[in-house]
Sequence to fold (65 residues):
Amino acid sequence: MNKRPDWFKGIFPALVTPSTKDEGVDESALRQVIRYVLPHVDGVVPVGTTGEFVLGFFCVCRRPP
Fold:
């Protein structure tokens, strides 16, 4: 029995998340990376297997509104 959703097929690369000098997420650069990659793949894996999560700067991802 295949439990994978129908939409989950194709190429989903793990993206490198650009950071700023103060170890925050460089949102402008991240948008550029996504816009460059997305036309050529089926989806992306943010905070993938590229090691950023271990570095711990993703606590800055939740910004106040």
Remarks:
- The longest helix spans residues 27-37.
